[in-house]
Amino acid sequence: MPGLLALAGAWAAALLGTLLLCRLWHSGAAKAPRTAALTAIVLAGAAAALMAVASTAERLAAGVGTGVSRLQMWRDALQLWTEAAWLGHGGDTWRNMFRAIQSSPYVGGEVHNGLLDLALDTGMIGILLVAGWFLLTLRSIFHFAPQLFPSVLVFGLHGAMDFDWSFTVFWMLFIWLGAWATALKTETEGVQRSGVTVKYTPIRSKSGSKLRSKSRSRFLFLRSLSIHTRLLYVPMWRSFFHILQRVTARLIRVSTVMIILFWIGGTFWLTFRYAIAEVQYRQAMSEPDGTPAQKVHLMAAFQSNPNRPDIVISLARSLPGREAESLLLYSLSHSPMHPQIYIELGRLAAQFGEGQQAGEYFEQAIALNRYDGIGQSTALYWMEQAARREWKAGYRDRAQQTAAAGVQMYERYQLLAEEVEAGNVRNDRRFVLEEHAPGYGENLRRLASAFSPPFTQELTKQSP
After folding, report:
1. Strand locations in 231-276 (E)
2. d(CA 65, CA 82)
3. For residues 313-328, b (16+ Cβ closer than 10 Å) or e, as one string?
4. Distance, CA of 123 to CA of 84 (rounded, Å)
5. Residue 189 near residue 140, CB atoms below 8 Å
6. What is the rounded distance in angstroms from the CA atom of residue 220 to the CA atom of residue 224?
7. CA 397 to CA 355: how far, in whole Å?
8. Start-to-end Cα distance in the chain
9. What is the chain's pLDDT, residue by residue, as a tens digit (464 residues)?
10. Contact 106, 428 (CB under 8 A)
């Protein structure tokens, strides 16, 4: 109820501010744009403050609500940003890396803060460039279109607190406000130019008018001759500079057109290929597993979009072991931060009886996504299978080492699940100790022991 009252008050303040500003504008305040702009700032600030009260109270009332969850995201994002503060990590940093650095099992494909997202991608250099653009836009609005300040401030302050500058439409609307201010500036300058009057002094036809006419003609002739004479002695470097300036301007125009065409064409081409990949992948998933038709559709989907991990993993499962391994390793060059590829590589290594290699792949997958309970349980199962294969092949020491590594994975998994359960943190990902994980841990302890029979009925559980 308090949030609704604050929100209603915010809208009332915004409406009152708009009415008062219109009144000031039509009553002559247009002659003093700075006064109108300051009035707009005060009214818009009051409206934005009331909106902030409503939204903040609603988000923080539950204790583990959206506000607290976002604070955790921002703290993790700031820690990630410090690792590459000036140049950033590159595009889509948060979406690709948040699972590896998150401090609690929240779901957050978006960092919910556009400026922080920009800092992660481009570093301080990108932030400084955007800040300069913002200042120039606000300066243009303040000087040439102060009537737009209520929209800028209410929208901007509310966006910094609610939308967090994370939606593309926000940036588009800010650009639109800046373009509107520039258009008003151009319109004002055009009106001023059209209002300039030029006074002409007529020549009176009285006595002596012929003499004055001849004198004026002689003066104009001598002036024209002087100008042409000076032009003959214009230095060559000025002519060259003028030609260079014209060529540069034309090159800029041509380059701009080419960049736009390349951007539009490249976007259309990639979108078309990705659409084909999606269609082929859906057709493959509708076919029975392991059939030639499914493999054909998966190959077509992979050729259209080799960067999608789900397509790569599905295709790898339809190939022989070593071919599948080569395909997955190739895919790591496109998706080095995708944990599921490492899990798939660990599964293949376990099937080959290479326990140490499987453990390395699983450790990398867990480091990239440690709050994935199903992934951790899957890693434990395949570590057990790898140890069994090594023991059957006669490599008893290797089997014990593989099992010991699996026991360490299980203990870390168990401790993390207990911390999440006891910490009363937001668990959007439903991270718990999976049902079969304790059994996998116990079996791995038996395999790691040199005095226990390794092959009992409890070791035949299916993969999760």
Report:
1. none
2. 27
3. bbbbebbeeeebbebb
4. 7
5. no
6. 6
7. 11
8. 46
9. 444 444 444 445 454 555 455 555 445 444 455 555 555 555 555 555 555 555 555 554 444 445 566 788 889 999 999 998 998 988 888 888 888 899 888 887 788 888 888 899 999 999 999 889 888 888 888 888 888 877 777 777 666 656 667 777 777 888 888 888 888 877 777 766 665 444 444 444 444 554 455 555 555 555 554 555 554 445 555 666 677 778 888 888 888 888 888 888 888 998 999 999 999 999 999 999 889 999 999 999 999 999 899 999 999 999 998 999 999 999 988 878 889 999 999 999 999 999 999 999 999 999 999 999 999 999 999 999 999 999 989 899 999 999 999 999 999 999 999 999 888 777 888 999 999 999 999 999 999 986 555 555 444 455 55
10. yes
DSSP letter, residue 188: H
Following DSSP, what letter does each residue of 412-459 receive, concatenated? HHHHHHHHHHHHT---TT-----TTHHHHHHHHHHHH-TTS-S--GGG
DSSP 214-235: HHHHHHHHHHHHHHHHHHHT--
Q: Which residues lie closer than 8 Å to 367 by C-beta, 6 or more apart?
A: 100
